TrEMBL record:
<dbReference type="InterPro" id="IPR053159">
    <property type="entry name" value="Hybrid_Histidine_Kinase"/>
</dbReference>
<protein>
    <submittedName>
        <fullName>Uncharacterized protein</fullName>
    </submittedName>
</protein>
Length: 347
């Protein structure tokens, strides 16, 4: 809404001037969202999110708890807190919402919990089982929009497990990409539309369809503008940057090298502002820069540093990705021993 920011600022102002109530929790977490979007001050925005949680507990506002925790996890806290901690918090918000009757935010929190589980590297078969049971719950409760938010994640997960004939398209046993996009176009649901596009781009990346990902960069920019401040923004930067590095190497392209460095600079700013979930992404990018510069020794060292970081954070899929990029680089350099060592660990 056009006056959203003004209303939130007034709510925060009145809370400070006249005293807080349980409704201040919504005002403060929303103010945190504004700070993420406009000021890019991640630590300060997270402080407002934490204050919102404190107000919930002070006023025993269980009826608002699921809603506020969802906003905190999906739009604020992931910019400064480790994602695996927020996964558990999101699942707690789901359980709270189901107990208190806040079904919509309970199910949105469940979807967030699954999304975070996938991002931190939970085994794909376990994700598959979780999504299947969750969608049954959502359908029983007739929350089709939340189902539509979850379907692209499910089909993406299945594409990684089953490798369909065209893995860069989210069409398979649980959804048809064209049908869901048609439905979102008819309803004007841009958020679901761009969730589909995001996961299509991610699937294309994982199956090495870098030219296809490159062609979709414009849609990625549009998606990021709609899904701003969500985890997909910084997560997509990983795939966008690595695609640009891959195309720069493959085509000896100054255009893609410039694009890669632009994405790296953006991630570096996020890390400096306190985004712990981007530390390993920046390390992988630094290794890729050494590859472009032809500095084999530095590239090896930086890949090892990136791999160590992913292991330390428990990011299974990203550790495999870093091993794969290191292995492919060393294979290009004729270092077959270390190439096969990394490629074996990648799989």
């Amino acid at each position: 809404p056009a006056h959203f920011v003004l209303v939130i600022l007034k709510m925060v102002q009145y809370s400070v001037k006249y005293g807080v109530s349980k409704y201040s929790s919504h005002a403060f977490v929303s103010y945190g969202m504004i700070m993420v979007n406009m000021v890019k001050d991640f630590h300060e925005s997270d402080k407002f999110g934490q204050l919102a949680i404190i107000f919930l507990k002070r006023f025993q506002a269980s009826d608002m708890e699921s809603h506020v925790i969802f906003l905190c996890c999906q739009f604020v806290s992931h910019w400064s807190e480790p994602l695996h901690l927020l996964q558990k918090r999101s699942f707690d918000a789901y359980e709270i919402g189901m107990r208190t009757g806040d079904i919509n935010y309970a199910l949105l929190s469940l979807r967030t919990s699954i999304q975070f589980s996938q991002l931190v590297g939970k085994p794909l078969p376990l994700i598959d089982a979780e999504i299947k049971s969750s969608i049954e719950i959502m359908k029983d409760l007739k929350h089709e929009r939340v189902v539509n938010f979850l379907l692209p994640i499910w089909q993406f997960n299945l594409n990684l497990m089953e490798k369909p004939p065209d893995p860069k398209v989210l069409t398979g046993s649980v959804m048809k990409q064209d049908d869901l996009l048609k439905s979102t176009a008819e309803s004007g649901d841009h958020a679901v539309k761009y969730v589909v596009k995001i996961y299509q781009i991610w699937a294309s990346f994982y199956f090495g369809e870098f030219e296809h990902v490159g062609a979709l960069m414009g849609e990625l920019t549009q998606a990021n503008s709609i899904l701003r401040s969500t985890p997909t923004l910084w997560r997509s930067a990983l795939y966008e940057g690595l695609t640009a590095f891959a195309l720069a190497r493959k085509n000896n392209s100054s255009k893609w090298k410039k694009h890669a460095l632009m994405v790296k600079s953006k991630v570096q700013k996020w890390v400096k502002k306190g985004n712990v979930n981007c530390n390993h992404i920046l390390l992988i990018f630094e290794a890729e820069i050494s590859v472009l510069e032809g500095n084999t020794g530095a590239a090896k060292q930086k890949y090892e540093t990136a791999i160590s970081a992913t292991a330390r954070y428990g990011l299974t899929h990203d550790r495999a990705l870093a091993h794969e990029r290191a292995g492919e680089f060393m294979l290009e350099k004729g270092d077959r021993y270390f190439a096969f060592h990394h490629l074996k660990l990648a799989h």
